[in-house]
Amino acid sequence: MKFVPPLTTSITYTPMDGSSFSEPKHTVLIYGATSYTARLLIDYLSDHPERKQFTFALAGRNPDKLKKLVQELHRDGEDGDEDSTKWIACSLEETEEGRKRVAEMVADAAVVINLAGPYSKHNAEMLVRACAELGRHYVDLTGETFWIKEMIEKYDYLASKTHAIIVPSCGFDSIPSDILAYKSAQHLAKIGKSSDAHIELSQTFFNAKGGVSGGTIASFKALSETDPYRVKRGMGEYALVTTGASRGVSSIGIRPYYTNPFIPAHGSFFVMGPVNSAVVRRSWALFRAQQRMAPDAKTVSYGDDFTYSESQVFDKRGGLGSRLVAWVVGLLLTIGLAAIMKSRILRAVFFRIAPQPGSGPDEKTLHGGWLEGTNVSKSSSQHVVVSTITGQGDPGYWLTSRMLVESALALTLSHDRLSPMAKQGGVLTPAVAFGDVIIDRLNATKEFEIKSMTLDEWRKNRESKKNV
């Protein structure tokens, strides 16, 4: 049966009346609270410097697992007594009673952190729908662009009317990619003394060390089992740009090897590059539309000729990769991924030996991992800036838990600092929803450093480190 594209006009449910619910009882609701990543979130929230300014509750499908989790948390010395930790057992079932139960759960929280992926498989749409209807905020870790596209088509307009801020992909995918492109655009706009950065070329190179996420593998598995037409709708850099919106210059696309004319960087195909590129391009489109509708608004625009690509570097920390390694790894990755996608046997073997959902790296990998991202952007006036992000800890778990928590707190504790565009609501991206707020919040942690400089400043900084 051919997949039918979702349209807002085809929704037949009766929206909940938000006026029947009281103000949120909790600042944050963690759904999927019994997962490995959730425990990292809970630990981070419990020791957060702003702990006295927020409350959080735990939720999931299995009441026995939730109760056991709460007992373990307080046995390990988490804050409060066991009875004070609110937990909610709630399945995401598309029934009248199920929708009512989900709405009641969501209404009690200012922001929902959803960890229960794969999102297309586990009916995460119910949480997005409830947030859009009730004016609550939402963040998750999805890398399923076809599912994000469907959420945009169904709930972007509704969320903008209730001022609900819905932000998918708030972890390693896709905050570093989106924020680095945004940071470079800001810097170029400042140099050009304009709100338009006029970017022609924007490239990001990632160098990282860490474990493979079981959740990412589960999403890949769900992707391979999804209707091909449905998946195809979510492919390409313009997949998340609203249908009918004007498009700009096409980027270079997927290839095994990437290099840059301004810095000695050699990158290979990055598995999550297509997902991150689609998110970055949606940011480009939203900022562009905002500037055209409100030229006086303090919103940066990347420019009509903006192009973007990203790749992964395989080198020692602080290195930008070698040409030979980039070519070899890039070819192996692209050929291997294509073979897995086409062969059922290879997929079965891969998913059998790959990390499983709910699992996570050992303590050594968790704390010994790291992330380095370098974005190089050039404007039409030939100005070049370099924006960087560094993070200490496993990118897919340790750093992701920090990014997700700070995203949720940006929507609540720092809501007043968000841009008017973000406060309007909708299905947004990290850069559009959080902007400078998430950069400041991450820089305030002990794990992250995000900064931007001119190409000359970057070269001097790099040379000085070599001489130390």
From TrEMBL:
<dbReference type="InterPro" id="IPR036291">
    <property type="entry name" value="NAD(P)-bd_dom_sf"/>
</dbReference>
<feature type="transmembrane region" description="Helical">
    <location>
        <begin position="324"/>
        <end position="341"/>
    </location>
</feature>
<dbReference type="Pfam" id="PF03435">
    <property type="entry name" value="Sacchrp_dh_NADP"/>
</dbReference>
<comment type="similarity">
    <text>Belongs to the saccharopine dehydrogenase family.</text>
</comment>
<dbReference type="InterPro" id="IPR005097">
    <property type="entry name" value="Sacchrp_dh_NADP-bd"/>
</dbReference>
<feature type="domain" description="Saccharopine dehydrogenase NADP binding">
    <location>
        <begin position="28"/>
        <end position="156"/>
    </location>
</feature>
<dbReference type="GO" id="GO:0005739">
    <property type="term" value="C:mitochondrion"/>
</dbReference>
<dbReference type="InterPro" id="IPR051276">
    <property type="entry name" value="Saccharopine_DH-like_oxidrdct"/>
</dbReference>
<protein>
    <recommendedName>
        <fullName>Saccharopine dehydrogenase NADP binding domain-containing protein</fullName>
    </recommendedName>
</protein>
<dbReference type="GO" id="GO:0005886">
    <property type="term" value="C:plasma membrane"/>
</dbReference>
<dbReference type="GO" id="GO:0009247">
    <property type="term" value="P:glycolipid biosynthetic process"/>
</dbReference>
<keyword id="KW-0812">Transmembrane</keyword>
<dbReference type="GO" id="GO:0005811">
    <property type="term" value="C:lipid droplet"/>
</dbReference>
<keyword id="KW-1133">Transmembrane helix</keyword>
<keyword id="KW-0472">Membrane</keyword>
